[in-house]
Design goal:
Structural class: alpha/beta
Strand content: 15-25%
Strand order of the largest sheet: 1-3-2-4-11-5
Number of helices: 17
Distance between the termini: 34 Å
Length: about 350
Amino acid sequence: MFKHPFAKTLLVILVLALLAACAPETPGTEPVVTTEPDITSEPDQPTQTFEPIDIKVGYVPYSSYLPFYIAQEEGYFLEQNLNVELIKFSQQVDAIPVLVAGDIDVYAGQLDTMSLNAIAQGSGIKYVADKGYDNPEGCVYTAWVARQDIFESGVLDDLNNLAGMNIAFPVGQSPQYALDLMLSEVGLSSADVNVVDVSAPNRVVGLGNGAIDITFLSEPFITQVLTAGTGSIWKAWETYLPDFQLAVLMYGESMFENPQAGERFMVAYLKAVRQYMEGTTERNVALMAEFMNTTPEIVRASCWQSIRLDGSINAQSILDFEDWLVEEGFLLQKLETEEFWDPFFIDYANEILGTP
C-alpha cells in the first residue's frame, strides 16, 4: 500500500446572508440506519448454498442509489444470502471516513478527492464498479444550471462574462475540474469567479433568491429548479464532458479480506443495475417513488443517471481528473489505474449473470 499524506485543500466558502436566511436546516451528519423496507412479493430463494454474510452499505438519498433499494426490495441480496444494512448519510464527506474506518463495508458516490487521497494513504479501499457516468446518448443528469434571468439575458453566450459571477460548486471536486476545463477555452479559470461552496439544497435556494448566478446540480435538484422556474440547464455535462466517470462503487478493506462477500454483493448489485437501466417501467417507477418519497409523476419526469450494465468504468477520465488534482494541489501524487481500480468483482459477476 502507498502511504502519502492528505493534500491540503483550500476551501473557499462565500457566506451569503440571504442564502442562510432562506436555506432549509442542514441535516445532521450522523449516519441514520434506514428501516428495512417491506418486500411486497416473495423473493427468489438462493440457488446455491451460501453462508450468510452481514454487509453494511452507505448511501446518500439521491435517485442514482436506487440499485441498492432494488436489490433489497427484489430480493437480490437475499438470493446471495446477504444480510445488507443500508445506512443513510446526509453527504459523502461523512461517509468516506466511516468506510476507511471499517464501520461500513461498501459505499457508492461521486468521484472525489477524499477517496483518492484515502487510497493513496493506504486505507485499503478501492473502486470496484461503475455507479454513474455522463452518457452522451442519455438524458441530462448532471449540469450547470443558470438562474433564469441570467439564462434569458444572453450574457452566457460569451464565457468571458463568467468572470466575477457567483458560481456554486464543491471546491476541489469534479465540478471545479469541469469548470476549469470549460473556462480554459477563453483563458479563464475557477479562480476568476466568486466561488459559493454550499450544499445542493442551498444551491437551489440561492438560484431562487438571486444569491447564485450559476450552479452545479444533479438530479433530483435539476428537476426541482426546472419545475420552480428559477433556472434553466445551461451546460449539460453529458454534452461537454462525455463519458466522464462521475461516480463509483467502493469496497472497504473488509470486502477484500472476504472476497466471497465482494463477489456475492457484486452479483446482486449488477443484477439490480440491469433492472434499474430498464428505465421507467411500472415496477421501477414504484420503487423510485418509494425510495425518494415522491410521486410517480416526478419520477417519470426526472432523468435517471446512466450506469454501465457490466459495471466497467472509464479509468482514463479518472487519470485525467487526477492530473488536475495534482496540478491544483488537491492530490499530492497521482495514482496509477491498478492502485484505485479492481475489476475482479465485476468480472466474477458478469460470468455469473452473463455479459449484458
